[in-house]
Write a structure and sequence with these properties.
Shape: globular
Structural class: alpha/beta
Number of strands: 5
CATH architecture: 3-Layer(aba) Sandwich
CATH superfamily: Response regulator
Number of domains: 1
Distance between the termini: 9 Å
Oligomer: single chain
Helix content: 40-55%
Length: 112
């Protein structure tokens, strides 16, 4: 399984990729949704980790796009936003995995 991390904060992206590697998984980071969408399509069984506050296309819009085109894709949201904002942005999108910033290794271990 490969993890595709879409995160514009390079420190957070690097930490996520490093933790995933330490847990024995391949991981690739992308600085925004557009870069991710221009890369080869993830394989079945891969996981996409999306920051909601991305430049350009928002994380929520990327989730919507993936839900239409790849409904089986496992999506994990990474955010520091309030629960009220999350409820509004993610309503009806079927996101079941959420990790709060700052990201801790236990939260990543629980994903794998």
């Amino acid at each position: 399984m490969t993890f595709h991390v879409i995160e514009d904060d390079s420190a957070v992206a690097d930490a996520l990729v490093l933790m995933l590697h330490e847990f024995g998984h391949d991981a690739q980071a992308y600085v925004d949704a557009e870069t991710f969408l221009s890369a080869p399509v993830p394989e079945a069984g891969d996981t996409v980790v999306i920051d909601l506050s991305l430049p350009g296309m928002s994380g929520a819009d990327l989730v919507r796009l993936l839900r239409v085109n790849r409904p089986e894709m496992r999506i994990v949201i990474v955010t520091g936003q309030s629960q009220a904002k999350l409820d509004t942005q993610l309503a009806g999108l079927g996101v079941t995995h959420l990790i709060r910033k700052p990201v801790e290794a236990d939260a990543i271990r629980d994903l794998v």
